[in-house]
Design brief:
alpha/beta, six-stranded mixed β-sheet, Rossmann fold, globular, 10 strands, 13 helices, four-stranded parallel β-sheet, about 45% helix
Amino acid sequence: MVTLEEIRAAQARIDGLVRVTPMRLSPALSAVAGGPVWLKCEHMQETGAFKLRGATNAAARLGKVAGVTTASTGNHGRALAHAARQLGLPAVICVSRLVPANKIAAIEALGAEARVTGASQDEAFKEARRLEREEGFALIPPFDHRDVIAGQGTLGLEILAQLPDAAAIAIPLSGGGLLAGVAAAAKAVNPRIRIIGISMERGAAMAASLAAGHPVEVEELETLADSLGGGIGLENRLTYAMCRDLMDELILVSEAEIARGIRFLGREEGETVEGAAAVGAAAVLADKLRAAPEPLVLLLSGRNIDPAQHRRILEGET
């Protein structure tokens, strides 16, 4: 497992390069959940998502390379493009045709190449691995990497520094880098804290893998929580085992529930979030997740939703 010492080292390494994001109480969600619900506003991170932490930590540890590359559903690619620009490195971000146009544009705005290849993240990864193998690029994967996990784990330390009596943290779950890092940090500080993973019903690869008892492939489907799409890798080295061992509960939410979460956070909280960031609120609103009596933290992981899609959801469309 990634250790607390690695996470503390990452915290020192990225200090000043990423934002310390706010934590605030949500009276509206607290009323629904039956106890205090706090929002960790990581969607206010500079690139609009938590991914900047892991990408910055990993990139800062590189030696001499031709450039950096990865495969991404959008947010990790944007974060790595940002880190590469800070370090003066070329970046090629491989994305599938399912990645929304606004996320591709955001990657390119940071000076990186967004290379669209294949119909899934697994197919995009093939091109990233070719760049590593044939052109000398450093491949920084979005989740199954010690330095990436350690960077994401800084969120766990930050949450408990801001809310020491937190009893549970609900974390969007995809490849598991965020949950693995936050859980490793939080449980090292407070072994009694509950870690709750939340994903979508459509194509949740980690959920399917945990049910099978080993990493499996799943069909990548269109979902409002597009940042949670993609596989975990059949040769997963770290996040599968860490999620299996550190996660206390796993909740799946439907597309309608995700839309309701986005809408509620927009209308009641004034927060613009993408579908992946709304899964915690979705679970609370669907009565799948309760807070009573101790504080529950919902991690709002990103804000990079297409503006037109966000308007449609606020108006009641899914």
